[in-house]
Design goal:
The structure is a single chain. Helices cover 3% and strands 39% of the residues. The protein has 127 residues and is mainly beta. The strands form three sheets. Strands 1-2-9-4-7 form a five-stranded antiparallel β-sheet. Strands 6-5-8 form a three-stranded antiparallel β-sheet, with no helix packed on it. A hairpin with a 2-residue loop joins strand 5 (72-76) and strand 6 (79-83). The protein is globular. The N and C termini lie far apart (48 Å). This is Signal peptidase I. InterPro entries: RmlC-like_jellyroll, RmlC_Cupin_sf.
Length: 127
């Protein structure tokens, strides 16, 4: 007998179904992974992959942590942050536009809050 309040999964299997996102407002009603408070992503990015366009008018706070790989650039209006070693991370608040580029294959854990509808963008592009 299962408990519909508990979900057990694998990030590298479940993530690709939702563009890497594991938790957020976009999960189905009744799914324990549905949340209006927070979003969590397991991002696996190939070398040369880039965000398809800048995120502007940001209404969320975000945390990106490099899990493995290395050389993932987070582009902000006034600087570029390089995540080069596992455990490197960056946090930015509401109102900070951003983009990113994977110089090398990288796996990142992203946490954003709150979970706000309307921010879906096209899949990453190769540069």
């Amino acid at each position: 007998m299962g408990d519909d309040r508990v979900y057990v999964g694998k990030a590298d299997v479940d993530g690709p179904r939702e563009g890497g996102w594991l938790l957020g407002h976009f999960m189905p009603e009744g799914d324990p992974r549905r949340s209006g408070d927070v979003e969590v992503k397991w991002g696996v990015h190939a070398a040369g992959e880039a965000r398809s366009r800048w995120a502007t008018g940001e209404r969320r706070t975000a945390l990106l942590v490099l899990v493995s790989g290395g050389r993932f650039r987070v582009e902000l209006p006034d600087r570029t942050v390089l995540l080069a070693e596992p455990g490197d991370y960056v946090v930015w608040g509401r109102g900070v536009d951003h983009s990113w580029y994977a110089e090398r294959e990288s796996v990142l854990l992203t946490v954003r809050w709150p979970s706000v509808p309307g921010y879906r963008v096209e899949p990453p592009v190769r540069r």
